[in-house]
Amino acid sequence: MFIHIPGKDLFVSEPDPRYFGNPKNDDPKVNWLKSRFHFSFAEYNDPQNQQFGVLRVMNDDLVQPNRGFGEHPHQNMEIVSYIVQGELTHGDSKGNKESLGRGSAQYMSAGSGVYHSEFNLSKKEVCRFIQIWIKPRQINTKVQYKSYRGQNGQADNKWFHMVGDMQENSQAPAKINQDANIWVNEFTTEQRFEIKEGRQAYLLCVEGSFELNIDSCLPLQDVKSQLINQHDGVKIFKSIILKPKGKAHVLLIEMKK
């Protein structure tokens, strides 16, 4: 069981650069930011699409060179930024500052409240990153910032457990204040992912394309498949099989129902 959300159906936002303290666009035909919202966010508000389980936000952000999100507040949210292209620089009111590239992730538990910024400081290269907000199990906790610096081959034809639950004995390099896990896979061969009873997942096709099937006892030819392309989302309720069309790159957030 799964529900396919085609990328063409996502809300696309291109806000005025002044909203985050940016100068005017260098090219009037190219906005400083292009965001694809998987759930209600900013000017997009759909009462039927507010969140999926504890996953409140998934924004696919493309930031032009020398642009970014100026300092702004967050509170009581687990925030993960996964970098797909270029380099993203994080700074916050607790004194943390760091730049990370492809395959890396920045994690911030906003807890009792923090101000932060995210910038693409490159003069030439665009920065694409996936912004994920997960609702915490407790509120007003201590603010924390951690990061993971991506390694070559970390997710080649395997599920890399990037973010886990701090209350579990997880080997994930980043841990959040919620019963949720984030997995990454860059694959050229068939992959499977098990969804256990009482669990569900949201999958983003970051790059490439693949055929998605439910992993069942039926022969594959008897199970209807769905082609998933870059930017598509999928709500998943059963174990799945992914068959790439060349090479594909996915991000999967697994959580309790």
Automatic annotation (TrEMBL):
InterPro entries in the cross-refs: Pirin (IPR012093), Pirin_N_dom (IPR003829), Quercetinase_C (IPR041602)
Q: Which residues form the Pirin N-terminal domain?
A: 29-134
Indicate the family of this protein: Belongs to the pirin family.
A Pfam family name for this chain?
Answer: Pirin
Q: Which domain of life is it from?
A: Eukaryota
Q: Which residues form the Quercetin 2,3-dioxygenase C-terminal cupin domain?
A: 169-255
Entry-linked PANTHER family: QUERCETIN 2,3-DIOXYGENASE
Query: Which residues does UniProt assign to the signal peptide?
Result: none
Question: Know the name of this protein?
Answer: Pirin
